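Re: the 230-residue chain
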Amino acid sequence: MKIFNSLTRKKDEFCSLKPGQISMYVCGMTVYDLCHIGHARVMVFFDLVKRWFEAKGFEVTYVRNITDIDDKIIQRAVGKNMGIKAYTDMYVKEMHKDEKSLFVQKPSFEPRATEYITEMVELIEKLVEKKYGYISETGDVNFSVRSFGDYGKLSGKSVKELRVGSRVSIDDKKKDPLDFVLRKSAKQGEPDDAMWQSTFGAGRPGWHIECSAMSNSILGKRFDIHGGGA
């Protein structure tokens, strides 16, 4: 079997880290609303990958996360006068209905971001300690893109090619417009269940760091396949 290798930018012969075993992590759904066709693609495609390996005799550990805290979730839960967990539970239930209707098997693990806050904070602390992250005037902790020489190596894009503000509004408190948030400080008016205490004060991790924390915790620092995103 050949698989596209994001680092070499070509199809390479696939060889698992452990003979007869496959470890796979996939970026899953952000449950602020009902699933759409793109989510269905993620469910079906990686279910197919898992089944193919199993049919070939591999033992597969498949992790697909749930992002159950972000700006949209907070805004919509507050708008409906609901707690964060009650709101996200509602859409996780609907997601599982969609999964069943598509005949998709459940992953081995389905971790939620809110269950790994401690692990995320520990990673963020390490990044700040190593000067890859910094605390801005707003109290947010940002990743310094230009401090990491290999940034863009997996996406195949140089720092010069990156677009600023394509997913979030530009924050003029950042040292560089390309920097992104690792941890957001608590904002006025946000509910108590949308923030956690840490060495950085009250706040919550950003979506960039959650998959690193969950994959490391469940599969270890090295695993075979990371899927999702683009």
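The mean pLDDT is 92.
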